[in-house]
Amino acid sequence: NAFDEIGTTPLYRACNDGNVKVTKILLKDERTNPNLGNSNIYGSAPIHGCCVRGHESTLKLLLRRSNIDLNLIDKRGASPLDAAVYYHQVYGKDHTNIIRLLKERGAKFRMYGDTPGFEPTLADFIQFWLGNMGSVITEACDHCYVRLITELFQNKDKYKIDPTARNRLLKRMSGIEAAANKGCTPIVKILLENGFDPNEQKNELKKSALQLAQDGGFQECASVIQEWIDKQQKK
């Protein structure tokens, strides 16, 4: 866990270099902290090194540790998944397997948050690495990424957006249910305007978007949904 002259740990250097042998040796020692960030200006952890360089072998070794944090944020505000996606897209590195491996383990991205130095990825690319547009919509709603949802619906003729799509990783919620569950009123408004049904109860919780908003104490969000339902009933 010691830092060298440039502020990096031995495990970070091994992971960053794709050195499987050294990584194995270091991880065998329970005292090795796999989540320790560098002391330099970047603060990257070993998992960031794997994701930036695209070293799948050392990443898999890290993932064997039960205490590995998949969503570590470095000093730039980037998660490991952010780093993998960014270097894949911007620098043309083939990090496809890294990205998929992280997503399978439940890693989160922050590219549409306030991450300095990591610009919003193209919706086309997000669609590629998440697998399908249904996953893009529901995950963006779950994180309340208003900017991404706005961009998608501004280009809805280009993207095949299915209002009925559900995400099994989010208890089979639809986009509007995921947004209501987090009380994200701006996204709920956009989805209501674009054919998303707040009355369905097909998620694992067997609750509608209105019920999810009410249960979460999101009064404004619940009021918007109730107003929409009332208008539909008067038609």
Automatic annotation (TrEMBL):
Keywords: ANK repeat, Repeat. The lineage of its organism: Eukaryota, Sar, Rhizaria, Retaria, Foraminifera. It comes from the Eukaryota. It comes from Reticulomyxa filosa. This is Ankyrin repeat protein. Pfam families: Ank_2, Ank_4. The keyword Plastid does not apply. The keyword Repeat applies.
